[in-house]
Write a structure and sequence with these properties.
It is a single chain. By secondary structure, the chain is of the alpha+beta class. The protein contains 7 helices and 10 strands. Strand 1 and strand 2 form a beta hairpin. Helix 1 packs across helix 3 and helix 2 packs across helix 3.
Length: 240
């Protein structure tokens, strides 16, 4: 099918067409795509345009390229996320074309531990909001989150909270600019394994992150436990 009748950039039209073929069932998850030559001919575009479309689709987690094997439609049950850029859990799920949600949310105001006080640069009497919740993708529990936010960072409290702490902090005047991140495997955690329905023999991936706003203030300390059968993280590494 030639798609040159639309006036938008051609690579965007290719992206839309690929997603259309997926949504109507003509292309199914796991399907190996035709060669670049065949796809370019099918869509009526150059191979350079096709490659740009595939690059974007790969970033969105729609396709997976396997060197020397080919390009495949991604298994929709898997969220593939690059960690070079800082995205919220909500954004990661949305970029995988799945619907984010929240269950089992609890928030309480409390004094932080000594370690949390030091990391968040709090005075002795300052309190934090401590929130626990399970994040879902299309209704499936995929991430268990523990978040600590200094109460002074949320002058309006939780008004307008839709699920993304990044958006809430930005609305409160503290847009997040960067984060210090530690990545750890978790082989066993009774309560979290039970909450996420993790099977025996599986593991979780823990991302511990201290987030800073544009003024270099620490505004959020998070511990996110990801199901490894659902989240696959990757990073682009370059030689110095």
């Amino acid at each position: 099918m030639n798609i040159r009748q639309d006036t938008r950039p051609l690579y965007m039209l290719v992206i839309d067409r690929v997603k259309e073929l997926m949504s109507n069932g003509e292309w199914t998850p796991g399907t190996r795509l035709p060669s670049e030559f065949e796809l370019a001919k099918q869509f009526g575009v150059s191979r350079a345009t096709l490659r740009e479309a595939l690059r974007v689709l790969e970033e969105e987690g729609v396709v997976v390229r396997r060197h020397g094997v080919g390009t495949f439609l991604a298994d929709r049950s898997v969220v593939r996320a690059g960690i070079e850029q800082l995205f919220s859990v909500t954004e990661w799920i949305e970029r995988a074309n799945r619907v984010p949600g929240t269950i089992e949310k609890q928030v309480r105001e409390m004094l932080p531990s000594e370690e949390d006080r030091d990391r968040l640069s709090l005075s002795e009497r300052e309190q934090i909001y401590f929130m626990t919740r399970i994040r879902t993708a299309d209704g499936d529990p995929v991430v268990y989150c523990e978040d600590r936010i200094p109460t002074r960072m949320l002058r309006q409290g939780w008004k307008g909270f839709s699920g993304s702490l990044f958006e809430l902090l930005e609305a409160s005047g503290h847009p997040i600019a960067y984060a210090q991140t530690e990545i750890k495997p978790v082989a066993h955690h009774d309560s979290v394994f039970a909450l996420l329905g993790v099977r025996p023999g599986e593991a979780l991936l823990l991302l511990e992150q201290l987030h800073f706003d544009v003024h270099d203030q620490p505004v959020l300390l998070s511990s996110n436990y990801f199901r490894t059968d659902t989240f696959h993280f990757h990073v682009l590494r370059r030689r110095p």
